[in-house]
Design brief:
Helix content is 24%, strand content 24%. It is of the alpha/beta class. It is globular and about 40 Å long.
Length: 140
Amino acid sequence: MYEERAFQLPTGVTLFTSVSVDPASRVLLVIHGGPDWDHTYLREPLSQLEGSFRVVLPDLCGCGRSTAGLADWQYAPDAVVGDLLALLDRLDTATAAVLGFSYGGLIAQHCPSTCAACPRFTSPLNGCGRTGAGSCPPRG
């Protein structure tokens, strides 16, 4: 079961996000494919992780019910990573495992080149340490 919520982020965008109600201490950030899809196709298969992970499924900017109509640069991987880090901060999540599909996999792998303090998105289901979005390049 998931709770749906629109998170207004300090980056200036709103990410529509489904979060499993599971109180698991481990968090799995799932980045959907696309770039024009939303996260809904992943909800059912990932519900099998109940009890193991608190699953976080955001719609990326321009997708689903998240902010659209932004300048082109705001859809670039660096900006998307900044949005995801801000979302983790809003969820008070210091660590997360990351799983990306298609375009989401590209975004997940892009983080290490964005800044050294970001989570390392090296492989699915590996814990990612982070020091917070404040140490990452600012959006804009």
